[in-house]
Design the sequence.
């Protein structure tokens, strides 16, 4: 399974790590994913999205795709 938040669509991004001497090397920034149980489903949600909408998910007021 890919590292993608199932609600917000956040995913791994790439870029350059830049040293003090201005050398560039490739690197990746991965999403901070959490597995949560909503009803009978287990979904992967980014921690930032979960902090913002976590209560709405648990109460069932937010629709899951």
Sequence:
């Amino acid at each position: 399974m890919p590292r993608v938040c199932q609600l917000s669509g956040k995913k791994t991004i790439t870029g350059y790590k830049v040293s003090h001497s201005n050398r560039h090397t490739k690197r990746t920034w991965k999403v901070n994913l959490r597995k949560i149980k909503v009803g009978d489903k287990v979904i992967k949600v980014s921690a930032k999205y979960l902090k913002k909408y976590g209560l709405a998910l648990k109460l069932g007021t937010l629709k899951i795709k």
About this structure: The first strand starts at residue 13 and ends at 18. The two ends are 17 Å apart (CA to CA). The longest helix spans residues 47-59. Residues 34 and 45 are 5 Å apart (CA to CA).
